[in-house]
Fold this protein.
Amino acid sequence: ADITANLTAGIASYPKPDSVVYSYGTAGFRMAADLLDSVMFKVGILAAIRSKALGGACVGVMVTASHNPVPDNGVKLVEPSGDMLVPEYEKIAVAMANASTVDELAELAAAALAAASVAPDAPAAVRYGHDTRPSANRLVAALEAGLAVLPAVDAIPVGLVSTPQLHYLVKASNEPQFGIATLDGYNNKLIAAYTQLLEAGGAGNGEFDAGKLFVDGANGVGAPALAALLAAAGPDFALHASIVNDGSDPEVNILNHEAGADYVKSNQMPPPVLAETADRCAAFDGDADRVVYFFNSPSAGFVLLDGDKLASLMADYISSTLQVLVDAGLVAADELSLAVIQTAYANGASTTYLRNELGATVEFTKTGVKHLHHAALAYDIGVYFEANGHGTVVFSPKYVETLARVAANPDLATAPPAAAAATQLGLLPAVVNQAVGDAISDMLFIEAILRIRRLSVADWAALYTEHPNRLTKVAVADRTVFTTTNADQQLVEPTGMQDAIDALVAPVDAGRAFVRPSGTEDVVRVYAEASSQDAADALALAVAKLVY
Ligand code: 16G
Ligand code: ZN
């Protein structure tokens, strides 16, 4: 087909609304679904170009707005490795999204192809999927029109998927050793790894009663995705979960409405359907790339186990299991580096726990998964989580080689604890979705640790006690006048404001506060911590007043 004719038809069908200026934020393009048709068309073109530029390696496109309300939608591109789009292409994406004429768009597409030295008819492959939003079908049709603009594009729809499933499918299609690039492949990989991990940890089915688990699916894609995994695993699977907020009744089950990880974390309360239960609960967000836990304690009321608690339990389990191998002389003490990557929103008590009790390296990055993921890759074991539940663990090639070497050591035969530890650690790269944070995979890992360690959710919560804190937001005329440094922990501009914040923090016992512009909303966020809730509230309020 003629490229210019395709572009002309596409621009006519999917005109750019005049009033909108598009930007590619931490979560890709995201806004009211009604404004996204033209963006989808252009993202289709760009995804094809990105794949062509990479020699035809498969790239991904995910249509989702995660925890945002139903009328919103969004789109994100995924690199062949399963990572987020490279910044260079974010810029091209923005330029294309804001182009309104055929000529502008043709020029941008030609420039991108030329920059990569590829012909328009070079081969490309794009896998694309979507969450449960009602706007998905319409937007996917626009995306498909974009994918059809250039010749030789293998456009592969994967339908309804979680964001991490899409990342998995893309990565697996480029790296067959990572997994089979189907949803069955995804399910079977996790089922097998989880089952083997429990067996190696002495916690196979029937060996330990872990109590009841409720999973809040946010009325999003996580609910059917988890149900499919559990169905594939069969009745003997050592995880029995009751899924609530499963989106099954469109009248009452509204996506992200009084449901899901964002609701639970932002409101610090259980979703209404789980207001009464004292059992262990996990809450996913709308596209199942985030998970937090909670329970209602008869004595303490609602108890949240956020991303910091997940990171702490995972780091604790990994480091102590590794220590068994060090003690057995199978791995040198400093052979494998371990770090936990956090953001400024991490509760200070978690950082203290990780550094002082676990002796772990803790590093801070700016908010946004890509920053944490990147920092984590510098270590053999990189545990990263945002407090809101986005996170995973990444393992280096050296980690995999080291565990393979240990597994081949004949001494293991006479050292059962070391053998069990080695098997467990060797399985972790398969249990944890290393492509991206994954609510299902993170939950399976946590469930395995609780079983192996014989921990209740209350035991886990008691790892450390959070400092009282307050997160608030301030609507400002122009959030771009706020710039930060030192992993968002300090303001650079407006000039002088950081000194004023420091002066407010100084007299507060265990005080900490920072201000950063949101990357997703037109607000500035203010976070404060102190030794009492009243003091944290007062500090947050005082800092917020500086910002107005
Ligand atoms: C996006 C980020 C999330 C971050 C949030 C912060 C990804 C996939 N998502 O949702 O990690 O916590 O933005 O929002 O990177 P904010 O900038 O509005 O505070
Ligand atoms: Zn999400």
Remarks:
- The chain has a mean pLDDT of 96.
